[in-house]
């Protein structure tokens, strides 16, 4: 009996293990960093007996950053699963096919028009930036559909179109950056590389409603994703409205990826790796694949954030760079070993 069969048979226990692992790594994330803090200090802070230093460090900095990592990681893991399921393309990832770039372009354009600093710490940005990111990501998805889908979608065609759109939006982003002052230019560059160093409570509250709404809806659509795997003719025969269901699933995926970009910046390869790892562990049934991909996405971003904070402390590496270092070789491995 191989590992997948064991984990599939004991799915609930495996999911509980992943959730427990998230809790353990979260505690480790809270105590590690340039300024150290112990578990007893955390307990003292929770009970209201901690020092002002520990309260500031935990409540205002590390805890919101931790929650953003969990929410954004889970959202990107689910978004990647949706895109791979809809396109039947194992290489589909919001960061690779241009969804993240479209969302990032919309956010930067919105901030440029408002002449605002790139920050998720203000209430107005916390409300408006996810909406702007969603619109930008949806614009990228429409471009991919118009160019690739209408002429007959294939995995490699969609990938190439997405890479082209990603490059185009990247060029527009660079043009916008060149019009900024030095401070905003540097902030945008760090943010676009994937950074949650500036995550505060407004960022958590901007992510939370989208995540709590869209991830359960994604899991409700698991049966539709399973049917899409059978092929277009079989899906139509089973009563699925292909274009409508694909549009719904893509919209959900774009929203999850976009709101993550609005807070955590452009984090590529997470939406690629989390579904693949989950699929190898638990199989292709989406009612199990989606929750596991969400947990693995959260774990990857949590671990990457710990590395980003501690590798060059007191300086920080953008977490998106850590994820890319881990994810790019895996993408090349999948590309080389793909049957098509």
UniProtKB/TrEMBL annotation:
This is Iron ABC transporter permease. InterPro entries: ABC_BtuC-like, ABC_transptr_permease_BtuC. Belongs to the binding-protein-dependent transport system permease family. FecCD subfamily. It comes from the Bacteria. It is a multi-pass membrane protein. PANTHER family: FERRIC ENTEROBACTIN TRANSPORT SYSTEM PERMEASE PROTEIN, IRON(3+)-HYDROXAMATE IMPORT SYSTEM PERMEASE PROTEIN FHUG. GO terms for cellular component: plasma membrane. The gene is fepD_3. The chain crosses the membrane at residues 14-37, 63-83, 95-113, 125-147, 159-178, 199-220, 249-277, 289-311, 317-336. GO terms for biological process: siderophore-iron import into cell. SUPFAM superfamilies: ABC transporter involved in vitamin B12 uptake, BtuC (SSF81345). Its main location: membrane.
């Amino acid at each position: 009996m191989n590992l997948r069969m064991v984990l599939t048979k004991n799915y609930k226990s495996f999911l509980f293990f992943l959730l427990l692992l998230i809790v353990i790594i979260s505690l480790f994330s809270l105590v590690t960093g340039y300024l150290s803090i112990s578990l007893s200090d955390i307990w003292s802070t929770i009970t209201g007996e901690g020092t002002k230093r520990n309260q500031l460090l935990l409540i205002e900095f590390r805890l919101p950053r931790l929650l953003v990592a969990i929410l954004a990681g889970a959202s990107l893991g689910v978004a990647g699963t949706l895109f791979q399921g809809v396109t039947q393309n194992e290489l589909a990832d919001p960061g690779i096919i241009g969804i993240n770039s479209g969302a990032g372009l919309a956010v930067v354009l919105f901030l440029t028009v408002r002449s605002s600093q790139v920050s998720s710490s203000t209430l107005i940005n916390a409300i408006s930036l996810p909406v702007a990111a969603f619109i930008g990501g949806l614009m990228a998805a429409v471009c991919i559909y118009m160019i690739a889908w209408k002429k007959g979608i294939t995995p490699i065609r969609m990938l190439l179109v997405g890479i082209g759109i990603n490059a185009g939006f990247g060029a527009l982003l660079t043009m916008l950056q060149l019009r900024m002052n030095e401070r905003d230019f540097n902030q945008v560059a760090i943010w676009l590389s994937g950074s949650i160093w500036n995550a505060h409570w407004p960022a958590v509250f901007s992510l939370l409603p989208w995540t709590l709404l869209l991830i359960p809806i994604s899991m409700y659509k698991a049966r539709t994703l399973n049917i899409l795997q059978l092929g277009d003719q079989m899906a139509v025969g089973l009563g699925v409205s292909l274009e409508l269901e694909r549009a719904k699933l893509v919209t959900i995926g774009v929203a999850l990826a976009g709101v993550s970009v609005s807070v955590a910046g452009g984090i590529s390869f997470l939406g690629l790796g989390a579904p693949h790892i989950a699929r190898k562990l638990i199989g292709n049934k989406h009612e199990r694949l989606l929750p596991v991909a969400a947990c693995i996405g959260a774990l990857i971003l949590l671990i990457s954030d710990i590395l980003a904070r501690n590798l060059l402390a007191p300086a920080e590496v953008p977490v998106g760079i850590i994820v890319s270092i881990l994810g790019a070789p895996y993408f090349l491995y999948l590309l080389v070993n793909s049957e098509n």
